[in-house]
UniProtKB/TrEMBL annotation:
<protein>
    <recommendedName>
        <fullName>Xrn1 N-terminal domain-containing protein</fullName>
    </recommendedName>
</protein>
<dbReference type="GO" id="GO:0003723">
    <property type="term" value="F:RNA binding"/>
</dbReference>
<feature type="compositionally biased region" description="Acidic residues">
    <location>
        <begin position="598"/>
        <end position="609"/>
    </location>
</feature>
<dbReference type="Pfam" id="PF03159">
    <property type="entry name" value="XRN_N"/>
</dbReference>
<feature type="compositionally biased region" description="Basic residues">
    <location>
        <begin position="341"/>
        <end position="351"/>
    </location>
</feature>
<feature type="region of interest" description="Disordered">
    <location>
        <begin position="336"/>
        <end position="371"/>
    </location>
</feature>
<dbReference type="GO" id="GO:0004534">
    <property type="term" value="F:5'-3' RNA exonuclease activity"/>
</dbReference>
<dbReference type="InterPro" id="IPR004859">
    <property type="entry name" value="Xrn1_N"/>
</dbReference>
<dbReference type="InterPro" id="IPR027073">
    <property type="entry name" value="5_3_exoribonuclease"/>
</dbReference>
<feature type="domain" description="Xrn1 N-terminal">
    <location>
        <begin position="16"/>
        <end position="215"/>
    </location>
</feature>
<feature type="region of interest" description="Disordered">
    <location>
        <begin position="586"/>
        <end position="610"/>
    </location>
</feature>
<dbReference type="GO" id="GO:0005634">
    <property type="term" value="C:nucleus"/>
</dbReference>
<dbReference type="GO" id="GO:0000956">
    <property type="term" value="P:nuclear-transcribed mRNA catabolic process"/>
</dbReference>
Length: 636
């Protein structure tokens, strides 16, 4: 436990994840030891590989061979501790959004300071998207898992690998995969386990963002985030259910759908690897939010609301908008000091009444000064950044890889000013459908991303290192501070590179790849979508996996999950599935998809269903108008 908290503190000091989120979890006793009962019924295992590789890296023995050996020993311990019956999902970080580039370069400078005292050995900076080391390690892990799956030494029937060449950060790809598994139907005859809302899911990693992404895209309630070394866990289901307990502002079960989304939004306002936020003020805002939601006139209020992109074109999906009126109440809570008349007739004495009144007056004056200090443009930009991050956490898709933070420090003053001075349309981010393709091509290929992040020329591929060391145009690349200058220099650098100047592995890093799915069928044969061969040979391309999402699940008769809301998200919808979603001919009325066509369901106004084969419908949470149900006892 001590080692775990030391590691968590190091991650906090390095700036990994949401600002202050790990501390907030610890203070609420959400970090506990893994119990044997938790691991007995494990179905899906997720591995955040970049975090595991960092944990396997030993600065006392900094070699690629030692790191690989430590990693495989760690993986064996994890397999034994969490014997997943259905699937093992190996997730590597892919090229990240431009907004994270400054943070990544700052971390690599810290690695460079440590590595500078050691002339030989592997640098921790090589544990980075786009490096040859990570691509070779990915191939080695895939080959190892394929052999064990073929030999039957793994209890699962499926291995899913999202490699370093698949775009997106690891936690975002985990969110997407969680929803992919939740879309499963059938009887499992193809080796793929159909979705069961009671399945137990374990996500192993050391980044606090993993907890937030699991809250945002949770199709399961038995879901745990576990540290890879200490095996200290955070139960996502218990975290969300804790909002319904206690005497201090308990939420009802029917409020969980929107509260879950609003929690992610407020948490993103704290700041993360992509932008600077309001830090601890976000947790105070969450406390105020819960108190307001307990009041009858705010029981159905939401901070973030899905609205159609075009009411006349439902196939365009929805975008997320901010309720600035409610946001203003959350950021500027009412001053509690009592009215003048109540103090006048109080029996506690004039002195005590005057003190309470003066304190309330001071709080009101501080709020007014706060709004005068803030820049509404900075507050509006912070809201836009939080909505952009919300898409990755809740939908598993980065909406815009080219998004960049303005660079100004977000503050509670700026947020209050924005919420008080701007109308709803102005403060809302122009968020397109989160399931739509990015509005622009990905700006950086894996090798380009690696060159942009790396601040030590020694770690660059030979062809790039030669140019950086010998050409004055590129000599300043490691020391550049401006992200615009870094991107421009990298673009000019790669314009000088010809494919023949790169090794076969480096050439593969000049293109994107697709996830790999390896399945052991009931007959014992192994099927895969992409063949992993020798690490020196290029890998074949594979098609992206199509994701299909369907409708609500029930837990003991209460709409509680998938993911704590009613939702309908489809990609590449077949005509048969589209007919089911619309409730047309051949639609199975017992299927959850019929909920989209239920005229008596108020959620139909918030959900968009389309028969277009390219339709994209964003996740929409709804709240029923039925009486509040009693909390459901769900086994942890």
């Amino acid at each position: 436990q001590f080692l775990y908290f030391i590691g968590a503190r190091q991650l906090e000091s390095a700036g990994m994840g949401i600002s202050g989120f790990r501390k907030w979890l610890e203070e609420r006793n959400n970090c506990k030891r893994v119990s044997k009962s938790t691991t007995d019924e494990m179905h899906h295992l997720f591995l955040d590989m970049n975090g595991l590789v960092h944990s396997a890296y030993d600065r006392a023995q900094p070699t690629a061979a030692a790191t690989r050996s430590n990693l495989f020993a760690m993986l064996d311990r994890i397999y034994n501790k969490f014997p997943a019956r259905a699937s093992i999902n190996v997730i590597f970080d892919g090229p990240a959004p431009i907004a994270k580039l400054a943070t990544q370069r700052a971390r690599r400078r810290n690695y460079a300071d440590v590595d500078g005292t050691r002339p030989d050995g592997m640098s921790e900076g090589e544990i980075t998207t786009g490096s040859v080391f990570m691509l070779e390690l990915e191939n080695a892990v895939a080959e190892h898992l394929e052999k064990r799956l073929s030999a039957g030494t793994l209890p699962c029937t499926e291995v899913f690998i999202s490699g370093t060449r698949v775009p997106g950060e690891g936690e975002t790809k985990i969110s997407r995969r969680l929803m992919h598994l939740a879309a499963r139907r059938g009887d499992g005859a193809d080796g793929r386990r159909p979705h069961d809302v009671n399945d137990c899911v374990c996500v192993v990693g050391n980044d606090s963002d993993l907890v937030l992404h699991c809250v945002g895209a949770t199709p399961y309630h038995n879901l745990f985030v576990v540290h890879p070394v200490s095996f200290v866990m955070t139960s996502v289901g218990d975290l969300i259910l804790s909002w319904t307990r206690g005497n201090s502002a308990p939420l009802s079960m029917l409020q969980l759908p929107s509260a879950r989304i609003d929690f992610v939004f407020l948490t993103q306002l704290a700041g993360c690897d992509h932008y600077d936020g309001i830090e601890d003020e976000a947790w105070r805002a969450w406390h105020t939010y819960r108190g307001l939601r307990c009041k009858p006139h705010r029981a159905n209020a939401r901070l973030v609301t899905p609205v159609p992109v075009d009411a006349n074109k439902p196939e365009l999906g929805v975008r997320m908008q901010i309720n600035t009126g409610f946001l203003r109440e959350v950021l500027c809570p009412p001053v509690h000091g009592g009215s003048h008349s109540s103090h006048k007739h109080s029996t506690r004495g004039k002195k005590q009444s005057g003190t309470v009144f003066q304190q309330a007056r001071r709080e009101w004056e501080q709020q007014q000064k706060s709004m005068k200090k803030g820049n509404p443009l900075v507050g509006s930009n912070l809201c836009e950044a939080a909505l952009w991050s919300l898409g990755s956490a809740c939908f598993g898709v980065c909406q815009n890889f080219e998004y960049r933070w303005s660079g100004q420090q977000g503050s509670i003053h700026a947020l209050r000013k924005a919420a008080s001075s701007l109308d709803l349309k102005k403060v809302c981010a122009p968020t397109t459908d989160p399931r739509a393709p990015p509005p622009a091509p990905l700006p950086l290929l894996p090798l380009q991303a690696y060159a942009s992040i790396t601040v030590r020329p020694k770690l660059l591929p030979v062809a790039l290192r030669t140019l950086v060391q010998n050409d004055q145009r590129f000599a300043r690349l490691p020391s550049l501070e401006s992200i615009t200058s870094v991107l421009r220099t990298v673009q000019e650098l790669f314009a000088e590179i010809r494919p023949s100047m790169l090794t076969p592995m480096e050439q593969k890093l000049m293109s994107f790849a697709s996830p790999v799915e390896i399945i052991r069928t009931p007959s014992g044969s192994v099927q895969r979508t992409e063949l992993h061969v020798d690490s020196l040979d290029p890998r074949d391309e594979a098609r992206f996996v199509d994701f299909e999402y369907s409708v609500p699940q029930m837990v003991d008769g209460v709409e509680f999950l998938v993911p704590y809301e009613k939702w309908s998200v489809t990609l590449h919808v077949s005509k048969t599935l589209a007919a089911k979603l619309l409730g047309g001919e051949g639609a199975d009325k017992s299927d959850g998809a019929a909920a989209c066509a239920d005229e008596g369901d108020e959620a139909a106004d918030d959900e968009s269903c389309s028969s277009d084969t390219s339709a994209v419908v964003a996740a929409v949470d709804t709240e029923a108008s039925a009486p509040v149900a009693e909390p459901v006892a769900v086994a942890a």
